[in-house]
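Re: beginner question about structure tokens

> Can someone show what the tokenized structure looks like for a real chain? I only ever see the sequence side.

Sure, here's an example I had lying around. Input first:
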Amino acid sequence: MTLPYEARVAVVTGGSSGIGLSTVELLLSQGARVALCARGEGRLKDVVSVLARDHGADRIISRAFSVLDSDAVNAFAADVEASFGRCDLLVNNAGQGRISTFEETTDEAWRAEYELKMFSQIYPIRAFVPMLRQSKGAIVAVNSLLAYQPEPHMVCTSSARAGVQNLLKSLSLELAPEVRVNSVLLGLVGSGQWTRRFAEREDQSMSREEWYGNLARKKGIPLGRLGDPSEAAAAIAFLGSHAASYITGAQLDVSGGLARHI
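And the corresponding structure tokens:
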């Protein structure tokens, strides 16, 4: 059986944990060579040692840096081109949300949030788009349902996420027909901030399944549970694959039915 990503090269930012790591693992299992980056050097090193053992060190490139460092992103792109010779898929997996109301959000927080959400898209796309044009590749951005369905306690992040979605729509037009640009809109996924909140739960006797189930009911998720990182990864891999070759400028809702907009 032909693997969906055989002979293809994927780049995943924020690839050492959660959805990013699940995406890396899935793409490797589907035949891709993968370049991943993350800020934490120690964790990245540990993750890559396991990935190399399972999939082969020659199929992996890793670098530790912040995607807000444009010089580091450009150097990463140069490394990918030198080592793998191409890039077929760029997965931009930007950071976590900021909890704050409008009244609570400082000027510094507004600037930091917009810089993170926007430039974590802009810098990697700018660096990799020449290779993506050559390969007729794809960009998949990991965004949030907040872009369309804002929450008052996450006003800053909701606003920034909407800006990212607008940027991606614009890029889907500008980069067509050579490069497809799509996104996944996530609801509540059991990784990152929710893992940390579970660890800090008031009732330490409550299991993860119970705590997540209560959270899902409280939030009104029709499927009655939080998503798994592997489910988000599957959506990302689909949008980046040839199976989605006539899809661009779109967003795939991965929220368990939490979306209320049409």
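Each token stands for a local structural state, so reading them left to right follows the chain. The mean pLDDT is 94.
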